[in-house]
Design brief:
By secondary structure, the chain is of the alpha/beta class. It contains ten helices and 13 strands.
């Protein structure tokens, strides 16, 4: 459950910056069973934020007091948060605090799935299951920027219409694992070159059946709660398919920093000059955080849910 509390301002480590948080976005990972807001270990929530630098650690030279920044962080649902300097990103000047808070987790996860490990190329096809989520939207926007074609599934025609407006090429209205034939028809019989599975085990097999030869499958989320799935080893073998997972749970700090640098190099310039615009579904006040959580659990959003802190 969510419970407001008074907590001290974080004490900075040598490689951290203290930010005064202006906005923070919600992420589904905080709502799954075992997370802090679902009965897991008690902790301060919020994993991405935008704000202003208030102080820097002794080993930090790139950032200074007053800088407008955004990034992945622990404890963003508070007035102040300590952010590892390797995950700090400059906030594009034209963005609102809410738009900036909607970028770090969703877009960097999409960057890992689509670019860093997914290796999408111009002219290839990306399939996203659960395409209306924050990572789904970021994956579509990232792929379109890189010149790829996109397919996306959702059970809502209204959501698919919104996604089509931001560049989704082939909307697939479904809540069941029945989309492989549609994917192959849309791709001239070849299949998707990359699939990003944000739904979970219930669509794993169908994602595999949707892949082209040398296709890649990114495992990112489990909205369905299904953590196990059968795998056709022969099809995987014959078609040279690749399966990989995207998770931050066991990443070391330098690994997080390396991914952040890659995102800053490859994708952030397109956000900064307006070629990519983050999609904010709805903004809540800080005292409305329980309502924001309920909105996410209702699966009603397209893009990111953001909470204004300041």
């Amino acid at each position: 459950m969510l419970e407001p509390r008074e907590v001290p301002i974080p004490q900075l480590q040598h490689d951290e910056v203290l930010i005064r948080v202006h906005a923070a976005a919600l992420n589904r990972g905080e709502l799954i069973v075992g997370s802090a807001v679902h009965g897991g270990p008690e902790k301060l929530g919020g994993t991405e934020a935008s704000g202003v630098v208030e102080a820097v650690g002794s080993d930090v030279s790139q950032w200074k007091k007053g800088d407008r920044v955004m990034g992945r962080v622990s404890g963003a649902f508070a007035e102040y948060a300590a952010m590892y300097a390797g995950q700090v990103l400059p906030m594009p000047a034209h963005l609102t605090w809410e738009q900036a808070a909607a970028i770090p987790s969703g877009f960097i996860t999409a960057y890992e799935a689509v670019v860093q490990y997914g290796r999408i190329s111009a002219g290839e096809w990306l399939l996203v299951t659960g395409a209306s989520s924050g990572v789904g939207v970021a994956s579509i926007l990232t792929a379109k920027f890189l010149g790829a074609h996109t397919l996306g599934t959702s059970g809502s025609a209204a959501k698919l219409a919104q996604l089509a407006a931001i560049g989704l090429d082939v909307p697939i209205e479904t809540r069941t694992p029945d989309f492989a034939q549609t994917v192959r028809a849309a791709t001239g019989g070849e299949g998707a070159n990359l699939a990003v599975n944000l739904v979970g085990g219930s669509v794993f097999g169908e994602c595999m059946r949707s892949l082209a030869r040398d296709g890649r499958l990114a495992i990112v989320g489990y909205v369905d709660g299904a953590y196990h799935a059968d795998i056709d080893l022969n099809a995987t073998h014959v078609n040279r398919l690749q399966i990989f997972g995207i998770s931050n749970v066991k990443l070391k700090r330098e690994e997080r920093a390396a991914t952040t640098r890659g995102f800053a190099r490859d994708i952030l310039p397109a956000i900064a000059d307006g070629r990519i615009t983050p999609l904010v579904d709805r903004v809540f006040g800080f005292d409305e955080l329980p309502a924001a959580k309920a909105h996410m659990e209702s699966n009603a959003m397209v893009g990111k849910i953001v909470v204004k802190i300041q």
